Amino acid sequence: MDGLTAGRIVLFGLGVDPAGRIAERPAIVVRVWDNGGCNLQVFTDGNNDDAFLRPDETSARDDRRRARSVVWRTSVQPVDRYDVAQVDRWRWPPRAVAAPRTADEARHG
C-alpha cells in the first residue's frame, strides 16, 4: 500500500454505533505486511467504546468495567474504497481543507 509505513496515522473502523454508522478511531501503524495489511494500535474513546471492544479488552476494577484506551488489532486490511469506512478495516483520514483567508489576514500576511 503506497505510503503505509510504521508510525503513520490511519482510521480504523471499530464497530457500528446504534445509529448504524461506522465508529472510526485513529490508529498508529506499528507494522506493515507485504499484502497491504498492518498491525495497529487503535485509540479508543474510553468507556464510550465499550460496546465495540472484546471482553479481554476491558478490566474489572471496583465492580466497574473500564475500557482500555489503546487496543491492538493485527493483520488489518485496507478498506475497499477510501471514501467508505468499513468495520475492522483501515483507511487514510480525509485531508483537512484550509479555511479561506479573511481580507484582514490577506493584508497582514
Structural class: mainly beta
Number of helices: 1
Largest sheet: 5 strands, mixed, barrel
Low-confidence stretches: none
Whole-Å distance between the termini? 38 Å
Backbone CA Rg: 18 Å
Helix/strand order, N-terminal first: EEEEEEEH
From the spread of the alpha carbons, the general shape counts as globular
Q: In percent, how helical is the residue content?
A: under 10%
Strand content: 35-45%
Mean pLDDT, to the nearest integer, reads: 86
Give a written overview of the molecule.
This protein has 109 residues and is mainly β. It has one domain (9-93). Helix content is 6%, strand content 41%. The chain has one helix and seven strands. It has one helix spanning 103-108; strands spanning 9-16, 22-32, 38-43, 58-61, 64-67, 70-78, 89-91. A five-stranded mixed β-barrel has the order 1-2-3-6-7. The longest helix is centred in the C-terminal third of the chain and has 6 residues, at 103-108. The radius of gyration is 18 Å and the shape is globular. The termini are far apart. 17% of the residues are buried. The model has no long low-confidence stretch (mean pLDDT 86).
